[in-house]
Amino acid sequence: MPPPRGLRETALTTNGRIVPGAIVQYSVGLTLPQAIEHGEQISKLARENKASGLSLIAELVKNLANFFKTKRALENEDDYFEVAALIMEEHKFMKVEEIAYVFKQAKLGKIGKVLDRLDGATIMGFIREFEKGEERIGYFEKRSRAPVDKFEVLGFLADNSEKLGVDISQIGKEKEKQEEEYRRFRQQYIATKEEPTAENNPDTES
Question: In three state form, how does the secondary structure of 106-160 look?
Fold first, then answer.
């Protein structure tokens, strides 16, 4: 099964326009693992197309502001884009899907408090609270303890050798060596299971 589509693929058209209703639709059922594992880093958005990246984050901010509709809130597109620019600068190593998740949690009352104010400082506070919170830190701690398949790691290094500065020829040799060792051990094991014994070989002298 292919991984879930990312927010950019879901909410932006090919010419960088926002798809109406896409933010709300994407946020329904969004989980933290999905946001992190299938998300796209904000720095990548900024590097590939900063304008569309800003538009996407600004739309998230706008959606949040429209949800609360407080008396003292962000009022126009300039306000949304200013907060989006701050998010892109200050939280560039987070996934944009994580921002969508943060805002969803804020709407549910699980992050921060909104009384009669929803300005840029409040929104940035939501993200900082989430970034340092138990849920996110606990997720990464749990993932760091999960067993890792060696061949999966070797495959990842091979696919990203140029970016990581890894000698791909050595990776290939290592993988071939491991596979050959496994084949040899398997053949030896099968051979020992098939060897006749005095108990089941009628030709064996007693």
Answer: HHCCCCCCCCCEECHHHHHHHHHHHHCCHHHHHHHHHHHHCCCCHHHHHHHHHHC
